[in-house]
Amino acid sequence: MSNNQLQAYQGLAYGELTTQDIAVVRSTIAKDCNEEQFKLFMSIAKASGANPVMNEIYPAVRGGQLTVQFGVDFFVRKSKESDGYQGYDVQLVHENDEFKMHQEKAEDGRYFVVIDEHSWGFPRGRVIGGYAIAYREGYKPFTVVMEVEEVEHFKKSNIGMQKTMWTNYFNDMFKKHMARRALKAAFELNFDDETVEGGNDTVPEYQPQGRKDITPNQDIIDAPPTNEPTEEEKQIKSIRTKITKKLKDLGVVGKEQVAAYIAKNAPKMGENPSIAELTGLLDMIQMEIDMKEMQNGDELE
User: Fold this and answer.
1) What phi-psi label fits residue 103: left (phi over 0), alpha (psi between -120 and 50 degrees) or beta?
2) Fewer CB within 10 Å, N side or C side of the chain?
3) Strand pairing of 194-196 and 57-62?
4) Quick one: which of 160, 203, 194, 186 has its CA closest to 47?
């Protein structure tokens, strides 16, 4: 890689990652990304503090669309950095194992899972399920219990590497998937896989530092131009239209609901958002939609 190419990545270095590290990431796990997608991926990695060299975050491109995925190692590290971390356990359940569990009701009225028995001998038979338990001081253990059928669809993924990993290393991938879910919930880690809409030439500039504070109020979204619109104003109007549609997809309809959404997600947003800010808002809403879809279908490791 030439010095000019290395210089182009200087602004993407962060933490312990050097410019040379970024170049290695570009030529290995990010080799399927175009330059815009790669810079967007690194911006998300930098904003979240996830290290691609340590397998904490990685990109996948399918049909010209970029998906940024967080690995279980990232969730483990962030959990260790959280207050009250006491470790986690993850186990597979095989068809010949003795396995029993039940639910109990905590003092606050919420239920939690208790594993009564899990013992085994050999041969254990095929894997039929599994569980992960995250331990946090002052809280009941948070347990995720899953059956194999809930993750079989990963073997049919149209993301090539994901399909390969789940097919060839199913047991390991299943354990990582359950551990990630347990740690994410127990330590309230709000890092989600992100899908960025657009083809090779339409990936927007990412605005990592402003994600929480980039939502304009509804009057700004709907306000008509006061003069003959410029090209920039036309673009802003187009993005506003998309924002309104995406909010409706989230079920956020009407000025009261929109106002509540804005108050919760972007109380400090200025009243003259730029194209980049509106694009960032659109991305944030899309990521929330994607997150709900993943929660419903457990899509993407």
Assistant:
1) beta
2) N
3) unpaired
4) 194
Structure tokens at 299: 């899509």
Quote the CA–CA distance of 24 and 7 in Å, as a whole number: 14
105 residue type, one letter: K
Give the residue extent of every domain in the chain.
3-72, 83-186, 207-297
One-letter amino acid for residue 238 of the chain: S
**Distance set, CA 196 to CA 130, 212, 287 (Å):** 32, 17, 8
Tell me which H or E stretch contains 13: none
User: Cβ of 236: how many Cβ atoms within 10 Å?
Assistant: 22
| Total H helices, total E strands in the chain | 10, 8
Residues near 106 by Cβ (< 8 Å), separated by ≥ 6? 112, 140
Q: From CA 127, how far away is CA 125, in angstroms rounded?
A: 7
- The model scores a pTM over 0.70: no
Give the percent of the chain with pLDDT over 70: 75
Sequence letter at residue 90:
V
The model's pLDDT over 111-130, given as tens digits with 9 standing for 90+, comes to: 999 999 999 999 999 999 99
Alpha-carbon distances of 10 from 3, 13, 45, 238, rounded to whole Å = 11, 6, 15, 34
Rounded Cα–Cα distance for residues 186 and 143 (Å): 9
Residue indicated by tokens 């039940």 = 102
Residues 36-80 pLDDT 10s? 999 999 999 999 999 999 999 999 888 888 999 999 999 999 999
Beta strands in the chain, from DSSP E residues, in sequence order: 57-62, 65-70, 85-94, 98-105, 111-119, 127-136, 142-147, 194-196
